[in-house]
Amino acid sequence: MKMIREICKNVFQVGAIDWDRRLFDALIPLPEGTSYNSYLIKGTEKTVLIDAVDPSKKDLLLENLDKLCVDNIDYVVSQHAEQDHSGAIKFLIDRYGSTVLGSQKCIELLVDFGIVSKDKVRAVSDGELLSLGDMTLEFISAPWVHWPDTIFTYLRERKVLFTCDFLGSHLATSDLFAWNHDSAKRYYAEIMMPFRANARRHLERVRMLAPEIIAPSHGLLHNRPDAVLSAYADWTSDDVKNEVVVPFVSMHGSTEKMISHLVDALIDRGVSVKRFDLTKTDTGALASSLVDAATIVFGTPAFITRPHPLIAYTAIIANALRPKARFASIIGSYGWGARIVEEMRSLMPNLKMEIIEPVIVKGYPKEDDLRAIERLADEILRRHRELGLL
Ligand code: FEO
After folding, report:
1. 216, 236, 256 - which closes a domain
2. Are 168 and 24 in a shared domain?
3. Which atom of ligand 1 lies at the shortest distance from residue 218's CA?
4. Nearest CA to ligand 1 atom 1
5. Which of 25, 42, 69, 351 has minimal CB crowding within 10 Å?
6. Number of independent structural domains in the chain
7. Distance from Cα 379 to the centre of ligand 1, integer Å
8. CA 264, CA 258: separation in Å to the nearest integer?
9. Is the pLDDT of residue 337 over 90?
10. Whose CA is nearest to atom 3 of ligand 1?
11. Are residues 35 and 52 both part of a single domain?
12. Residue 23 alpha carbon to ligand 1 centre in Å
């Protein structure tokens, strides 16, 4: 779909909206599609393109450039080598003879991936300037949001900061600028949360630049940068909220009964709960809930003595995303044998959460088991109070 917009004088969004994509990395659900933003900057002396869309959309990018009658692109800035931003680079080189600029790491990756040859690339360093005539680009090193190669690009005279994946969102929309940050939060959870400390550091650099427009390479742009920067400051902080995330799976109703009792007990105690039945859950929504929660309680039956594969999958995802939750527990039911707790711990070595006494019961939960769950709710409440969360 056509997506040419002039976001400020002589700066155009020429990328592609992907309305139909429903999965990223063969893992991340995209309920609202995504976009691969690409930006054309026409200076009086040099023309630059920033990022070069997913391979599936390279024809759209080239058509958009035709519609703008672009007959020369001096430089393609590759802010990050991942394929969803480098898909059209080789075609741009073929058509325009462009030189590709990127971090040293990005250039190495592009060459290793077979996208460019060494004679068509040049590494840029942190703080390096590139004159386009009436405008100037500044390159800013921003590694580990979420690859080691990322740079931001600042168009000084227009105060536009291009941030590639950082501050982006997976959203297919005809809107240009963000009106809320729901999709950005989900994207942060899925992509940036494992790199929280780096994201926090780069936020400071962005604030110092004081851009008027932030232009990521996915989803919506930000023409009120303070709003998204404040949201990110909250998400990347060490602060947690009075929330418990409860992902669970139940085979015969025993674990579900325990989960229901826990959820009611937590609500009675004034603790917010986000409950996810893993047979129905959108993992992006679950990831998003992990951004703020103080506590995670996993619910699982024993599946051949071990955690059910759906909860094991969730534990592996949580271990990779590294949420800032302080506490965790495990509740569940078994028939003839259980190694649930040891296995769950082994699946999450990255997480430093304190484990509150798990509740694992044989068969359907009985009165004593339900009292144990209430004690777990009491313990969660006590710890949340100690953190001053309520
Ligand atoms: Fe949007 Fe890391 O690629």
Report:
1. 236
2. yes
3. 1
4. 165
5. 69
6. 2
7. 40
8. 10
9. no
10. 82
11. yes
12. 13
Token pair recorded at residue 175:
């809107």
Helix (H) or strand (E) holding 293: strand 293-303
Report if residue 390 sits inside a domain: no
In Å, what is the CA distance from 178 to each residue of 3, 116, 122, 211?
A: 16, 34, 33, 15
Q: Cβ(288)–Cβ(185) under 8 Å? A: yes
Verify that 151 and 12 share a domain, yes or no: yes
Q: Which residue has the tokens 């009106």?
A: 179
Question: What is the DSSP-derived secondary structure letter of residue 356?
Answer: P
pTM: 0.96
- Establish if 368 belongs to a structural domain: yes
The predicted-structure confidence for 50-74, as pLDDT tens digits, reads as follows 999 999 999 999 999 999 999 999 9
Ligand 1 atom at shortest distance from the alpha carbon of 147: 2
- Judge if 323 and 378 occupy the same domain: yes
CATH code for the domain of 350: 3.40.50.360
Q: Which of 203, 236, 269 is the last residue of a domain?
A: 236
> What are the pLDDT digits (tens) for 180-215?
999 999 999 999 999 999 999 999 999 999 999 999
Q: What is the CATH number of the domain that holds 134?
A: 3.60.15.10
Residues with CB under 6 A from ligand 1: 80, 82, 84-85, 146-147, 165, 218
**Residue 17 sits in the same domain as residue 106:** yes
Give the range of the structural domain holding residue 71, as residue numbers without chain letter: 5-236
Span 170-174, mean pLDDT?
95
Q: How far is CA 81 from the centre of its chain?
A: 17
